[in-house]
Amino acid sequence: MKSLALLLCLAQLWDCHLASPSPLLGYREPNCDDPETEQVAKAAVDYINAHVLHGYKHVLNQIDEVKVWSPDPTREVFELELDTLETICHVLDPTPVANCTPRQLTEHAVEGDCDFQVLKQGGQFVVLFAKCDSSPDSAEDVRKVCPHCPLLAPFNDTKVVHAVEAALAAFNAQSNGSYYKIVEVSRAQLVLLPPSAYVEFAVAATDCVAKEVTDPAKCNLLAEKQYGFCKATLTEKVGGEDVAVTCMVFQTQPVVPQPQPDGTNAAAPTPAVDPATAEPSPAGPPVAAVVVGPLVLAAPQGPPLHRAHYDLRHAFTGVVSVESASGEAFHPVKPPVVVGPGPRVHSCPGRIRYFKV
């Protein structure tokens, strides 16, 4: 009798086991530091840098989580959670992001947090969903690392605005070519001793000659945009102030042809690709192509809001309209979260590439 009861119990347990979903049913969870995962994460960061209109390029710092599921045998969808770091390269700077140094903790670092869904099909990556936000390191954490380091200051602080205007005037006074206008204030920090302001800002060339300008309001940006990026320090002193400014002018941006009335273009536009996208990583598998939209360069902005950095939250959000390689519209459906017994078969979060903010 006892043997029969034991047999019935074992049979019930086996039925329950068969009815329980496998922890890997519907999707797999690879290692966050697998070459394939890193390849997809790189495509996601390339997407960020191709779509951010203001501020600075970002680099991958850590892969927090990854899930992969296959709607059919020919394609896979990667769902990733990523941490990024702001670099010292402005978004208008053509320097490949692989050569851009992350902003250090002592410089008041900025971290990005991103969620991505990336379709992999036919050797290409297509971003289906992208949502990011970013925030500077806390003042308390900066003080722990560097008690006297300056913190980020709001762009519309009166001292910041004055420093940018004075620096631009000094740059134009030294110019033998075009007169430049402000595109955006990108970064600012205020120092107490000696009283000074450190600013970084983007500029664009106009159709005026710097030495001949009498009314800057009449100067218009060039059709073929000529952008530059400036760093300046304004130091207050008795009886006046000192301004030190250096600017790097980038190559002219080609004019993007506009659609003609008959629906044709005057010339086929060349897709704008982030330089880092086209350069393979020195190690690991070949970098697959990432499908992104055209790079839209920054336009002159109105008075800045009371903010100290450009949040990635405003760069892009939601589902991107894409078509699969077969021409069929594809909308991924997130699978249910399944928790099962036994050890995890993947290792996440992954390694920290630079430092934790």
What does it look like?
The N and C termini lie far apart (about 65 Å). The protein has a 5-stranded mixed beta sheet. Strands 5-6-7-8 form a 4-stranded antiparallel beta sheet. It is built from 5 helices and 9 strands. The chain is about 20% helix and about 30% strand. The protein has helices spanning about 1-20, 35-50, 140-145, 160-175, 275-280; strands at about 55-70, 75-90, 110-120, 125-135, 180-190, 195-210, 225-235, 240-250, 290. The protein is of the alpha+beta class. The longest helix is centred in the first third of the chain and has 18 residues, at about 1-20. This is Alpha-2-HS-glycoprotein. Keywords: Disulfide bond, Glycoprotein, Phosphoprotein, Repeat, Secreted, Signal.
Helices and strands in order:
Layout lengths: L1 H18 L15 H17 L4 E17 L2 E16 L19 E12 L2 E13 L2 H7 L12 H17 L3 E14 L4 E14 L17 E11 L2 E10 L25 H4 L10 E3 L66
Parallel strand pairs: 4-9
Antiparallel strand pairs: 1-2, 2-3, 3-4, 5-6, 6-7, 7-8
